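just leaving the lab so this will be short. what follows is a protein written twice so to speak, once as letters and once as structure tokens for the fold. can you read through it and tell me how you think this chain folds. anything you notice is useful, everything is just below:
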Amino acid sequence: MAHILHIIDSLGLGGSERMLVEIANATADSGERVSVCVTRSNVQMAKQLRPTIAVQVLNRQQRFETQALRVLGGFIRQQRVDLLHLHSRSTLSLVVLAKTLRLIPQSTQVLFQDHYGIEIDETIPRWLKLWGWRFVDQYVGVYDKLEGWAIRAGIPPERVCSIPNALDFKRLTAPNLLDIRREFNLLADMPVGVLVGSIRPVKRVEVLLEALAQQTHPFQFLIVGAAGDPTYYAGLRAQAVHLGLHDKVHFTGGRADIPALLRSCDFGVLSSDSESGPLVLIEYMAAHLPVVATLVGGISKQTAHYHPEIFVPPNDVAALAKAINCMLKLNTAERRANGEHLYQFAVQQFDLNKVIRQWQAVYDDLLASQGSSDA
């Protein structure tokens, strides 16, 4: 039985964290030995891992800490880890340093799953281009645009591929419900829109607020997510008041009950100008929600191939306002029909039970190559 160790900075609420949990659980269910290492300290989502998955927490405070590197190397050796599955560029830099210092066995395979949204930043770190690429046995981007970035960084093309993000639809369609109108004191006769995500500048919530301020049809709107950038978050709240949206837009903060919350809303919105997935688009569709979204990231582009009508260009207030206006003009039955159509599409394209086979094939190839090199 192979031992696969997932490494990530944090298990707070987020897209890459969600993908770690989904892949780790599915792999453990298939009989593999799976562990998780959190290099910092937030383990909020750890409770969603299978009970058989051990979690190691390094509690590092700085980017590189000698003690954290030694603990990581010791864990890998003692637990006989065969394969490291890395989930962020910062964890890759940490493992590259540990491998360079020979704190991690050279035979331990390294898989880097890149979740980075590169629409607005295609910079290649100098350390990766000079020598870090040598330690990447397999690069997996969450959408195909990242493949070109990896090859430019020096990773040989035969070690580069992409596997789309996917989610466990059984979890997303569990029967628990949430009465959002009571919870947030919303009016019963108005459609409720929602945006979910870590609230930081890349989400372009200010563009969404400007678009909402142009609406003439009644609505209520929830902005759900922790303040990834507190200064930005405070500015958004002030902007909402300035635009006269204080009684229409509600900032809920981060929540752990997203599937139940989404199933109680009437439509979902994504306003980002850069994404790698975005996973939340799958969550919207899994909740049978009709969607208005910017065309960024692999999941959006895959969906746009079949449903171009739901997408608008990023950073375009007028286009986003027009799309939301069209959504608000629909009656309840029409919105539900649109949401059901998207749900059926998402089940076919983004169910983890189908995508996990691609991950298992990548794991098998890496572990087989490790056996060959050991021999």
About this structure: The mean pLDDT is 93. The radius of gyration is 21 Å. The longest strand covers residues 3-8. The CA atoms of residues 289 and 324 lie 13 Å apart.
